[in-house]
Design goal:
The complex is a heterodimer of chains A (about 425) and B (about 325).
Chain A lengths: L6 H18 L18 E7 L6 H16 L3 E7 L2 H14 L6 E4 L3 H8 L11 H7 L7 E2 L2 E2 L1 E8 L1 E5 H6 L9 H13 L3 E3 L7 H14 L2 H10 L6 H14 L19 H6 L3 E6 L3 H8 L3 H7 E5 L12 E11 L6 H9 L2 H9 L17 H12 L2 E4 L1 H4 L1 H16 L5 H13 L1
Parallel strand pairs in A: 1-2, 1-3, 8-9, 11-12
Antiparallel strand pairs in A: 3-11, 4-5, 6-11, 7-9, 7-10
Chain B lengths: L1 H12 L3 H4 L4 H37 L2 E2 L8 E2 L3 H8 L1 H32 L6 H13 L2 H11 L5 H8 L16 H26 L3 H9 L4 H30 L2 H6 L2 H5 L6 H11 L3 H25 L2 H4 L9
Antiparallel strand pairs in B: 1-2
Helix pairs in contact in B: 1-3, 3-15, 4-15, 5-9, 5-11, 6-9, 9-11, 10-11, 11-15, 14-15
The chains are: A alpha/beta (about 425), B mainly alpha (about 325).
């Protein structure tokens, strides 16, 4: 069969070969000037972000870098835009092992930033960014470890259900569901008009896992959730209940056929494609979804007209806070030995004016107060309102618990969707991964 | 041994070289060693740097519990290897690899042989046919993966084709049904790589001397008899080499599986191979030490398979080239 099988050994080598860099990486150019010498010596900041596809996001970051260099001529910024998974899973971990990592780079927060801090990779910026943290508010906590600030978000939003208003009207659903009973009712009505009620990209695992996260958010108290993120203990029975509730929900058959092989986004056969092209009525997805739906929509103008958003419904009588929401964001952090200008640039990125213009690109929701007026799309506006009125925002569980537990958890949840796993197995998988 | 001494002597004696010129074997041997060293050093350096050293590192890292954050410090011995063989998904990956190894041999072999024998006859448009047969192999793996993913999707081309033929009952969730997906992938792999087997066999066929087949024909042998008693035996070495390449390729197969089959189906053990399992766990679950252990297991299995195959099946074909010193 295969003779062109270079990839497998190559990847094996990559796993170890990239680590060779540890030994080979020479001394960097980061001779750190004292803080009082800010902007005195010429410095070059390398910036790794994940807006790798041509579009408003990538264009905007280029402009931000240019504007900053114009205001501070001693600072040159070299951008490298890398696709998210590559950046986060291979390039950054490998670069951080060397003595010459990028100065400012994408940081997801949560479990990942905790590991990076423990390895002493990141610059403690607590004292320099007090104003910014105060302006951003509780969202900045995700980039904190033990009370110290190591990064700042530039985008943050909660997830909810994106839906087709026309289909809802057609099925006779008067208002977006606010409880799961109403959601089940809506599912029945949508089936009656022969529409796939909910599109699910289980093929990519995380879109399916997010349903479990939401059931966990409803089943567990905020204290339990907070503790789980720090200690990685999942003994509370609410984590099993989340799986039970999910199983019951899957039992109502709300998703399209063969969802286990449906990708999440980025292609016409994905769950995004189903919603964007009028083949399904709902999809659970994060605040970035507007942009990704547009890329797969045959008729983006029509999409904008029928697209609506509502928060994940509450479950009556459950232990969780009904006003709590799941969310996440993107931030940047500075490498430990990055020049002091790095922090200044980070502060610039999250300043209200820059954030407002970011919001106007429609790429994501801003985090800084004073940037809200940049959000123009009505669906995005409703997310912004819901985000600010949420009593507690729980970071995506796979990010909060780190890649290892996150991956094991997602796999076990997917098994439930495939009819193979059990609620108890999810918790067992999380516990055993925490020891791996 | 003597040659090494010559070598050492040669290095110091080189200014005096003209004196010895033409004086016989010593200079000749020395020159030979200069050539050998000069010509192989770059290749050996690259091989050591990019094959042996990373392999050594892989073994080293595989003995640590290491998440790729900071240098590896937590030595765990062979725990990672034990963990791998305890993980049912890894066992599933081994099974899937076995299906692909055996399936590729059993399906591609006969097809390739038949097509090669047909294409070896003279007929109009033979060149075009040969070219077409080879096209899938030339396509990039990722292109092939995406193409088949779209063709095999629910209500995609394959389903539509079956329905239009009145075979609607045969439509399957080709890539979603956990019991079907590995066979679907085997089909895609066969489609992709059978062209390579055919080209290899055609090359082998062109080496079968025409005199032999002509002589047989004169003696009254029919086409089938000629193929059975002359062509096939002479094709033996080519077939064995193809089997060898196919087995190693099947053990290490990655890209087509990675692209065609979604992460969820892989994580359920239905379609993953050792190589995809390695990347899923090494990078996506961020278990770098564990990922390296899987890489080493994959290497050892491929290496042992290669050695066994060479020992028992390729022995005659490579005799002299590898197994014995050539005078």
């Amino acid at each position: 069969m295969a003779t062109k099988h270079r990839a497998a050994p190559f990847l094996g080598i990559l796993l170890s070969g990239s680590l060779l860099l540890t030994a080979c990486g020479g001394g960097g150019e980061s001779e750190e000037p004292a803080a009082n010498e800010l902007y005195k010596n010429p410095v070059t900041l390398t910036w790794w972000h994940n807006a790798s596809q041509d579009g408003p996001g990538k264009t905007y970051w280029t402009k931000v870098a240019k504007d900053f260099s114009a205001a501070h001529p001693t600072v040159t910024i070299e951008i490298e835009a890398i696709e998210t998974n590559q950046l986060q899973r291979t390039r950054l971990p490998a670069a951080l092992l060397t003595s010459d990592p990028p100065d400012i780079f994408q940081a997801w927060g949560g479990g990942e930033i905790r590991e990076q801090v423990e390895a002493d990779y990141l610059k403690d910026i607590t004292d320099q960014v007090k104003t910014e943290v105060a302006n951003i508010g509780s969202a900045s906590e995700i980039w904190q470890v033990d009370g110290k600030q190591y990064g700042l978000p530039f985008r943050m939003g909660i997830e909810g259900i994106w839906y087709n208003k026309d289909m809802f009207a057609q099925a006779g659903i008067a208002a977006p569901p606010t409880t799961f009973d109403e959601l089940n009712d809506a599912v029945t009505k949508l089936k009656a008009i022969n529409v796939v009620p909910i599109a699910l990209g289980a093929g990519d695992k995380w879109p399916a896992a997010h349903w479990w996260y939401n059931f966990a958010l409803r089943a567990c108290s905020v204290d339990v959730l907070k503790k789980a993120s720090i200690d990685l203990t999942f003994d509370d029975p609410c984590f099993v209940k989340a799986g039970d509730d999910l199983k019951t929900f899957i039992g109502t058959d709300p998703f399209q056929k063969n969802f286990i092989a449906t990708p999440g986004q980025n292609d016409p056969t994905s769950a995004n494609g189903l919603l964007a092209n009028g083949k399904a009525a709902m999809e659970l997805m994060g605040d970035w979804n507007k942009g990704t739906l547009e890329t797969v929509a045959q008729d983006p103008a029509k999409l904008t007209k029928f697209l609506g958003w509502f928060p994940v419904p509450a479950i009556s009588g459950s232990a969780g806070d009904p006003k709590a929401a799941l969310g996440g964001g993107d931030g940047y952090a500075c490498a430990k030995n990055a020049p002091a200008e790095c922090v200044e640039f980070l502060k610039y990125i999250v300043s209200p004016e820059v954030q407002k213009a970011y919001a106007q690109t429609g790429v994501g929701l801003p985090v800084a107060k004073g940037a809200e007026s940049g959000v123009e799309d009505p669906a995005l506006k409703s997310i912004l309102d819901a985000t600010s009125s949420a009593t507690y925002v729980q970071l995506w569980l796979d990010t909060a618990y780190g890649s290892t537990v996150g991956n094991a958890m997602n796999d076990a949840i997917v098994a439930i969707f495939a009819g193979k796993g059990s609620p108890q197995q999810v918790v067992d998988a999380m516990k055993s991964a925490a020891r791996k | 041994m003597t040659s090494t001494q010559h070598l050492a002597g040669g290095a110091t004696a080189s200014p005096a070289r003209p004196v010895y010129r033409g004086s016989g074997r010593a200079a000749e041997t020395r020159r030979k060693w200069y050539e050998i060293i000069g010509l192989t050093t770059p290749a050996i350096a690259v091989y050591v740097m990019f094959v042996l050293v990373p392999m050594g590192f892989a073994v080293y890292y595989s003995l640590y519990r290491w998440r790729g954050v900071g240098p590896p410090t937590q030595f765990v011995g062979f725990d990672n290897y034990v963990l791998a063989f305890q993980d049912p998904i890894f066992i599933d990956a081994l099974r899937n690899n076995a299906i692909i190894v055996v399936g590729s041999l059993l399906v591609q072999g006969p097809i390739a042989l038949g097509v090669a024998l047909l294409l070896n006859r003279r007929f109009r448009g033979r060149t075009v046919f040969r070219l077409l047969v080879f096209v899938p192999y030339v396509l990039a793996e990722v292109t092939v993966g995406i193409m088949w993913k779209l063709i095999l999707t629910d209500g995609g081309t394959v389903d539509a084709l079956l329905k239009s033929l009145g075979l609607g009952s045969l439509t399957q969730a080709w890539l979603a049904d956990l019991d079907v997906v590995i066979w679907t992938l085997l089909f895609v792999l066969t489609w992709k790589y059978v062209g390579f087997a055919i080209i290899l066999l055609l090359a082998g066929l062109s080496n079968v001397p025409a005199e032999l087949t002509e002589a047989a024909a004169i003696d009254g042998a029919g086409w089938w008899q000629v193929q059975r008693h002359i062509t096939l035996p002479l094709l033996g070495p080519t077939i064995r080499i193809w089997m060898f390449l196919s087995i190693i390729g099947s053990l290490q197969v990655f890209d087509v599986i990675w692209v065609t089959s979604v992460p969820a189906v892989r994580s359920l053990g239905a379609s993953g191979t050792m190589a995809t399992y390695m990347v899923d766990n090494g990078f996506f679950a961020r278990l770098w030490g564990y990922g390296n252990a899987v890489a080493v297991i994959l290497f050892v299995i491929s290496f042992v398979a290669a050695l066994l195959f060479q020992r028992f099946l390729l022995r005659r074909d490579i005799e002299g080239a590898i197994t014995r010193r050539v005078g």
